[in-house]
Amino acid sequence: MNPLDPRFSLLPVPDRTQPKAAPDPAFSGRSFSDRLNGAVGEVNTLQNVADFAAEKVMLGELDLHEGMMALQEADLSMRLLVQTRAKALEAYKEIMHMQF
């Protein structure tokens, strides 16, 4: 996505221009639940942005390339979330079958 394109500024994209400091997982202070909720919220935001971009493409207010990039980003984030869920469920099942 080209942030310099004035038409793209209409999309509600989260600000990613600020460099993030590398978080230290041991001292970050966020629980797994908070992280999971944040990830689900971010995927939801990307899905909404992709829907909005698709509407803008259909109206001719956004390039097809920019719309496809928004859709691809939303698709990849959803696939990652689904894979994370599958791994978490697999780990849960393994723990439930452990003999103590």
Automatic annotation (TrEMBL):
Q: Where is this region: Disordered?
A: 1-27
What Pfam families does this protein's entry cite? FliE (PF02049)
List localization entries.
Answer: Bacterial flagellum basal body
Give the record's keywords alphabetically: Bacterial flagellum, Cell projection, Cilium, Flagellum
Q: Which PANTHER family match?
A: FLAGELLAR HOOK-BASAL BODY COMPLEX PROTEIN FLIE (PTHR34653:SF1), PTHR34653
Give the UniProt family note.
Belongs to the FliE family.
NCBIfam families associated with the record: fliE
- According to UniProt, the name of this protein is Flagellar hook-basal body complex protein FliE
